[in-house]
Write a structure and sequence with these properties.
Layout: E1 6-8, E2 20-25, E3 28-35, E4 44-47, H1 58-61, E5 69-72, H2 89-102, E6 108-113, H3 115-126, E7 131-137, H4 152-159, H5 161-172, H6 186-195, E8 212-217, H7 226-234, E9 238-243, H8 250-253, H9 255-268
Parallel strand pairs: 4-5, 4-6, 6-7, 7-8, 8-9
Antiparallel strand pairs: 1-2, 2-3, 3-5
Amino acid sequence: MPVLNKTRSDNLDEGGLPPDYWCETGGLLLRAKVWNEDRQGLPIVFLNGIGTSLEIAAPLAEQFSGRRFIAIEMPGSGLTANTSIPLPPALLARFAVEAASQLGAYQFDLIGLSIGGALAQQIAWQYRDRVARLVLAGTCSGYTMLPHDWMADRLMWTMNPLAVVMNDLISDLIGPHLNTLIQPTPASVASQFASFAGWTSLAFLPMVKSPTLVLAGSRDRIIPPSNAAQLSAFLPNADHRILPDAAHLFPFSEPERTARHIMRFYEKTPHAAMAD
């Protein structure tokens, strides 16, 4: 596959964050950040949740000081422009993998949060030769997800996730790195939801061979933790863990605890050499 153009911003971000990379793919410019850029070996590729910019990933990325950690922003998030129409998951997967290739990640460990976890499932199936190990955090199988119970307030949490995410940002993520977050527009959030309308991963999850760790927060008000058990039941090589007293954004509110689970998973499942 040809490597597309890559440009790098020369301006350092606030808070000591890595500078931006801009990857051109399919006529789009996707923003990316790379932590520990000089590290060799298999990199980690991270896909963010809906409506949040790459800056929020800093606490988790900093836990992996020995690994190259690449975070890629999808259309409508952060500084990455929204598209005129919602893009299907298969096309988003292609763009994400092409951007990772431009950043030197031809094969990688993949981590996805929330809707980024849905995209990570699509990538792990669509590009099975690229993903060594898969971590799914606070995510679900799409429209086949297990809902909260039928209490009205809990259904409203699932139907209005942006409001819950913003509340969790305020209550769980108080910290200086939040000063650099880029707020989404309602149109961009709606477009991201529309991309996965009618999408489900249950039909192809049994074909995903990558060793997988599924993580969920016990007090996730957007995606019930029971969805971790559903995903691990359909994945042939998966295990799941429920983090007590953790909310939807636990990779950022509790990065140390999240990273410990992921590192133990990596230690238990060393990746085999993969064919180019």
